[in-house]
Structures are given as structure tokens and as C-alpha cells.
Specification:
440 residues, globular, binds zinc ion
Length: 440
């Protein structure tokens, strides 16, 4: 039986909710940072059965859900269909239904449901489709399976980490925006004009990508790739209380100032009454140098960072200190370390800035000095990471351009195209180029 007749057979008239009603096509990227979204999976599922996405909905999915508002063409449903990828009841309904229909066990991984107790819905998902044209184009060329990573459905994601270009939400052919999912959705194409989305729009290169956007994308990528469950709501308040203890000696108002949020907002998070949005948490991570995994998992990650330990020892040293100048130095030191810009300084720089001896700092503020050394190292690695990611993206684009012109991109051709002699000399960059060449 071919796929189309199979779907017709079951369309609206199936009697059991058994598995294998639909083909169990494998979801893409499960357990990885670029894991596919559930809305993307549904669109591919319709294509695998050679039917329109809308027909899959009206013949199979809507009747199963048995909700009257989904009838009448389901327009009202489609305007909120992006929530299928999210943290609320509709995500549960779709996970359960598609698990039953396909027999695939880890459909939940294609949504944010594992973050339901720590992520509020506010500011979480975008209702319109957004995509990286370079990724779409690569998928179209390489494997012909075009899918949308779950990350693209997040409002916090504004750039593609692989190509370092802004992600787009206007069709390059007709200029329209459109919903993440509706009856006319087709992978990699605009549902309004059927244009191919793997083509950068004219405005694509106009905006340069900021480090802050790359930072956010990196942290979210790490979080998705961690494969961890983050279901303890208490972890958020717990992590915040540790950060307040470390950064402002337990003073919540001071910490609110440090973050630049209203005091009452912070109290709401701190007391577990409200949850900070993903964007809020990313800002806290940036200010306090924790990653999303540490933030949402609470205890474990933070202990690895030594925050709790540092906070305890600082208190002890304060008690022991009697000499006023040393205390003054301590105060200036803490003030300095609270400032994010101090991350680029090592202890020698800091001692110079405070006009004191490095040994004195180590003697009285050993924990803080060690903490600073660790932060400084983290900063150096992170800056290097961002620099390499940017360079890789440039090389990737130059490589694709040259191939597009029918040439075989050599090291010197790429360096010439980038106008950066010796750009490919560094070991990790060399490796990256080799991988590109092998995959070409
Ligand atoms: Zn991309
Ligand atoms: Zn279009």
C-alpha cells in the first residue's frame, strides 16, 4: 500500500489509537544542540505521507484531539500552533498523540517540556517562523532533508551559531512573514509564495551579529545538548540565593541593582513566586558567569564554580580582619570584581589597579584571587571561542561562495577572499577547513 492510500484509509475513520498509524520517521538531532522542533517534525511527517500539512491535521490529528475549536479550518489553532514546541498542555497533547501514532518514544525531546517547571511561557516562543537561510540551503544541498532546529523557535535566538548571520523571518521572495505551522507549511519553503527559504534576503548581510547574541545562542545550544532534565522549580530560587550571597553578601537590593532589574521583580524570583524569563536568566548568567546548565540545575553546577565556598570564606576573613586599610582594599576589590569588565584582568593587573601588592591580595583574599584567576581564564577561553567561531563562519561562507563559482577552494584562495593572509594557519582553523573539504 502506498503512503497516500494508507493515510486515506486512516483519515478520520481509524478506530484505535494504536501505534504505526503514521510512519515512524526518525526525528533529527535528538540529544544534540540542534535538535529538531516538533512543529518541524509534523511538517516532515505530512511530507513523508505525501499529503499537505493541513490534510494531516484535518484527517488525522484534529479528529484524534477531538476539539471543536480546531475544526472550521483550524485557523484559530494555527495562530497558536507554535506552542506545540513549548511547555504547556498543548505540547503534552501533541507528544502523547504523536508517540501513539508513530511509536517513537522520545517525541518529548523535540519540545521544551523538560523545562516546564523552570521556563515561564512569557517571551519564550515566537509565533512566526524564523530560519537561517544558509542552514536551509546546506540541508537542501547535502541531504535533501530540510528541518528546523527547536532553537529557531525561541525568541532569545536571533543568530545562527554555525553561520553567524541573523536568523530571518521574512520570505526572501515575497517578503511576507508567516506562522511557524499552518495548513500550507512545507519544509524549507514559504507557504505563501512557495519560494525557497535557503536564499539570504537582501537585508541579511546588512546587520552585523553582536557578541551578546552569539553568547545567548551558545548557552542555549549547550543547554539543549546537555540532555539533562530541569524539573525542579526550587533550583531557580536556590541558585539566585547563592549568587546573592556571593556577589552582594546576601543583599538582595544590591544584587537587583547589579542585574539592573527592579527590586520587587528580583524578590518575586528570589522567593519562588515568579520565574525569570529565559532572556532574564541569560542576562544573569552573563553578569555572574554561570551557564544555563548550572543555573537551572542549581546546586551541582554552582559548586563546581566554587561560588558557595567563596562566599563562606569571604565572611570568615571579614571577621578576622582588624586593620582598616586591608578592609578598604577588600571593599574596593569586591567592588571591582563585581564589575563584569574586570574579567579581562588577572590578579597582577588588579593589584596594580588597587595600588597594592599582589602578595597582600593573596594573603588576605586568597579565595577571591583564586576565583578571579578562574574567571579570567574562563574569559580568555570564551573570547578565543567567540573569535574562532566567527572566523570559522567567515571561512564557511567563503568556501561556499567559491564552490558556487565552480572553483575548488584552496587555503590561499580562501585567505585571499577573506583578505586575511595566514588566517588558516591556526591549528583549530586548519582542522575546520579540512573538515569542510572532506564534507564537500
Ligand atoms: Zn546557519
Ligand atoms: Zn514567500
Amino acid at each position: 500500500m502506498d503512503t497516500c492510500s494508507k493515510l486515506e484509509l486512516y483519515g478520520g475513520a481509524y478506530s484505535s489509537k494504536s501505534a504505526s498509524v503514521l510512519y515512524p520517521i526518525p526525528p533529527i538531532g535528538v540529544g544534540e544542540g540542534h535538535v529538531e522542533s516538533l512543529t518541524s517534525y509534523i511538517i516532515r511527517l505530512a511530507e513523508a505521507h505525501c499529503v499537505r500539512t493541513g490534510d494531516l491535521f484535518s484527517n488525522i490529528l484534529f479528529p484524534y484531539l477531538n476539539k471543536s475549536y480546531m475544526l472550521k479550518g483550524g485557523y484559530r489553532f494555527y495562530t497558536s500552533a507554535h506552542l506545540i514546541n513549548g511547555v504547556t498542555g498543548i505540547a503534552y497533547e501533541f507528544i502523547e498523540m504523536l508517540t501513539n501514532f508513530t511509536g517513537i518514544k522520545f517525541i518529548d525531546e523535540l519540545t521544551l517540556i523538560r523545562f516546564k517547571n523552570v521556563l515561564p511561557t512569557r517571551g519564550l516562543l515566537r509565533s512566526n517562523k524564523a530560519w537561517c537561510p544558509y542552514c536551509i540551503d546546506e540541508m537542501g544541498n547535502e541531504s535533501s532533508v530540510v528541518f528546523e532546529p527547536l532553537a529557531w523557535s525561541l525568541q532569545a535566538i536571533t543568530v545562527c551559531l554555525k553561520h553567524l548571520v541573523p536568523i530571518e523571518d521574512n520570505c526572501p521572495s515575497c517578503g511576507n512573514k508567516f506562522l511557524s505551522l499552518d495548513g500550507r507549511s512545507i519544509s524549507g519553503h514559504c507557504p505563501k509564495c512557495n519560494g525557497w527559504l535557503g536564499k539570504p534576503s537582501t537585508s541579511c548581510g546588512a546587520r552585523s551579529v553582536e557578541d551578546w547574541e552569539i553568547y545567548k545562542a551558545k548557552l542555549i545550544h549547550e543547554l539543549f545538548a546537555s540532555g539533562m532534565e530541569f524539573n525542579n522549580k526550587k533550583n531557580v530560587a536556590w541558585t539566585l540565593s547563592r549568587l546573592v550571597a556571593t556577589y552582594t553578601d546576601g543583599n538582595v537590593s544590591e544584587f537587583a541593582k547589579l542585574l539592573g532589574v527592579p527590586k520587587t521583580t528580583l524578590w518575586g524570583w528570589y522567593g519562588g513566586k515568579n520565574l525569570p524569563t529565559l532572556e532574564d536568566v541569560l542576562r544573569i548568567c552573563n553578569k555572574c558567569d554561570v551557564n544555563l546548565i548550572s543555573f537551572y540545575s542549581g546546586n551541582r553546577g554552582l559548586n563546581n564554580h566554587g561560588f558557595v565556598l567563596a562566599a563562606k570564606r569571604i565572611n570568615k576573613q571579614d571577621v578576622c580582619l582588624t586593620s582598616k586599610p586591608i578592609q578598604k582594599i577588600g571593599k574596593s576589590l569586591k567592588r571591582l570584581l563585581m564589575n563584569r569588565e574586570s574579567m579581562c584582568m588577572n590578579v597582577t593587573h588588579i593589584a596594580r589597579k588597587l595600588r597594592c601588592n599582589k602578595k597582600t591580595l593573596y594573603k588576605y583574599y586568597k579565595t577571591l584571587c583564586k576565583y578571579q584567576t578562574r574567571m579570567n581564564r574562563y574569559y580568555q577561553t570564551a573570547s578565543k571561542g567567540i573569535r574562532l567561531t566567527k572566523l570559522n563562519a567567515e571561512i564557511c561562507r567563503a568556501f561556499t561562495d567559491l564552490v558556487g563559482q565552480g572553483q575548488t577552494p584552496t587555503v590561499s584562495m580562501i585567505e585571499k577572499q577573506l583578505n586575511r593572509p595566514n588566517a588558516l594557519r591556526e591549528e583549530p582553523i586548519k582542522d575546520f577547513y579540512e573538515r569542510l573539504r572532506m564534507n564537500a
